[in-house]
Amino acid sequence: xxxxxxxxxxxxxxxxxxxxxxxxxxxxxxxxxxxxxxxxxxxxxxxxxxxxxxxxxxxxxxxxxxxxxxxxxxxxxxxxxxxxxxxxxxxxxxxxxxxxxxxxxxxxxxxxxxxxxxxxxxxxxxxxxxxx
Length: 132
Ligand SMILES: [Zn+2]
Hints:
Residues 3-132 form the MPN domain. GO terms for molecular function: metalloexopeptidase activity; zinc ion binding. The two termini are 16 Å apart. By secondary structure, the protein is an alpha/beta fold. A seven-stranded mixed β-barrel has the order 1-3-2-4-5-6-7. Helix content is 27%, strand content 39%. The chain has one domain: Cytidine Deaminase, domain 2 (3-Layer(aba) Sandwich). The structure holds zinc ion.
């Protein structure tokens, strides 16, 4: 499996991560073709926890994003957030979230690190990220 995202979109997420004192978060909208996940739009959301070590997206905002995606003929293909002090690897809490949102999880760091992950059969697997 691979995640295909525009370089500008990825750079934009990393830039936001560097400008925020808390973890940033949001959804990746796009489409899935075979084993490739194409990101067409990055939709940032508020971090309800406003925390440097965790994030939570408000269910109402999630519902809004699902509506927006549907209106645009896109799917919510991923979740993104930042890690400020540790590598872009899912935490225990992230893995619980991945169990609820079973799509690709992109994690970035302010210093420009990024890795994507998916939970498959209870196992966290890395997803290759390709920019276009
Ligand atoms: Zn995390």
